[in-house]
Predict the structure.
Amino acid sequence: MANEGTVHVVDDDEAMRHSLAFLLEAAGHRVRTYASAVDFLEAVPGMERGCIVTDVRMPGLSGLELVERLNAIGVTDPVIVITGHGDVPLAVQAMKAGVSDFIEKPFAEGTLLSAIEAALEKGSGSKAEEERRRAILERIEALSEREKQVLDGLVQGKPNKIIAFDLGISARTVEIYRANVMTKMQAGSLSELVRMALVAGRVREIP
């Protein structure tokens, strides 16, 4: 059963807007769509509470610029950023701006739906987010000190060679630690690992 709240979809791609609206409505969510960040900002004063799904690369205001505007005017609804140009530095930038989640295209329908459910629960004050955070913190605590150092390098967007130089070890050794981190954290991708680091507060600990 869908959570209470409206999902606001902001994307300049008309086909993507219609596709997302169809998917979300089929899952039982109320949906509103907007062709640009400016259109959405104009609707903010009277908008229904819920969560916001926005593309990153749009004409005019980008998705990250939209997040900054929302922060500036005190909008606290969770924001999910989607992009077809995902990379770790962009993910970290988005997360430091306070987004709820960061999802790369193409994504599985279940990935987006799960992220929206979590965002709506977070926005409604559910304990689900705290339980998720606790589980991720337990995984981080299970990492060795060296694995934690590699994790921190990864979420800063550093390549293996730079992490190896910083830690005084070989790039091949970093690859081994990286594989161990992905396995222990139960992360299916680097972007997912970065999202976990955000939930755990790990990204905010990094200068």
User: Anything to note?
Assistant: The radius of gyration is 18 Å. Strands lie at 6-10, 30-34, 50-55, 79-83, 101-104. The longest strand covers residues 50-55. Residues 109-123 form the longest helix (15 residues).
